[in-house]
């Protein structure tokens, strides 16, 4: 009885853990039209041809229009969690919800088409 | 008066010197990043195309980025950060670890040279 209960407990725990793992990536469906309204924080750097970030290294910020939607979601989620580091990208990503990230990814993946 | 003039010219001299040093640094950084496209293509065929696609556009997984036409210096940064561990990805860490600085520069030059869908949109 006690063994059965603990087995059931472990089973439930595993299910919960699996659920947590599955729900980690931002899974919201993105709207390009909504993304178009949310990109004011992006265009100051990513909207300027050849724009360079200076800290902590000097290089041109990547072109993001036309990039893969799932990759943009992965990149923004990694910045938000702190797994990927860049001071301004981390700060901006932390203000975004899963839905914001999905909308921005949909907008940029379509090359800016609303 | 004389000491004032001297102070100003000293400051000016330091400014000019600083500018020259900065310019030289910038130039050498630029040179360090000048990769060889042909060698980059060879390396890409061995290391990158299996996942990122033959053209650097159609990757085998949608969560992998388009590389074709991306800025060269950004690609250098990404590969260097994967190599040092500053940027974490289990697959890319393994791919970038054996790459030399030159190989990274060559790969970046090659992918930056390819045509692709990446572009800048202003708003």
Summarize the structure.
Chain A is mainly alpha-helical and 114 residues long.
Question: Which tags fit this structure?
Answer:
heterodimer; A: 114 residues; mainly alpha; Cytochrome Bc1 Complex, Chain D, domain 2; two-stranded antiparallel ribbon; 4% strand; B: 123 residues; 2 domains; globular
Largest interface summary: A-B, 30 and 26 residues
The share of residues in helices of chain B is: 55-70%
Instruction: Average the pLDDT over all residues of chain B and give the rounded result.
Output: 85
Largest sheet of chain A: 2 strands, antiparallel
The termini of chain A sit apart by 60 Å
Number of contiguous helices of chain B: 6
The CATH topology of the largest domain in chain B is given as Cytochrome Bc1 Complex, Chain D, domain 2
CATH architecture grouping of the largest domain in chain B: Orthogonal Bundle
Task: Give the helix/strand class of chain B.
Answer: mainly alpha
Number of strands of chain A: 2
Using only C-alpha atoms, the radius of gyration of chain A works out to: 19 Å
Number of strands of chain B: 0
Principal-axis shape of chain B equals globular
Task: Describe this entry's structure for a reader.
Chain A is mainly alpha-helical and 114 residues long. Chain A has a single domain (28-109), classed as Cytochrome Bc1 Complex, Chain D, domain 2. Chain A has helices at 2-22, 32-37, 40-46, 69-81, 87-93, 98-109; strands at residues 52-53, 59-60. Chain B is mainly α and 123 residues long. Chain B folds into two domains: 1-32; 36-113, Cytochrome Bc1 Complex, Chain D, domain 2 (Orthogonal Bundle), CATH 1.10.760.10. In chain B, 64% of the residues lie in helices and 0% in strands. Chain B contains six helices and no strands. In chain B, helix 4 (72-84) packs antiparallel against helix 6. The longest helix of chain B has 31 residues, at 2-32. Chain B is globular. Chain A binds chain B through residues 39, 43, 46-49, 57-71, 73-75, 83-85, 108, 111-112, and chain B through 29, 59, 61-66, 69-71, 73-74, 76-77, 86-88, 116-123.
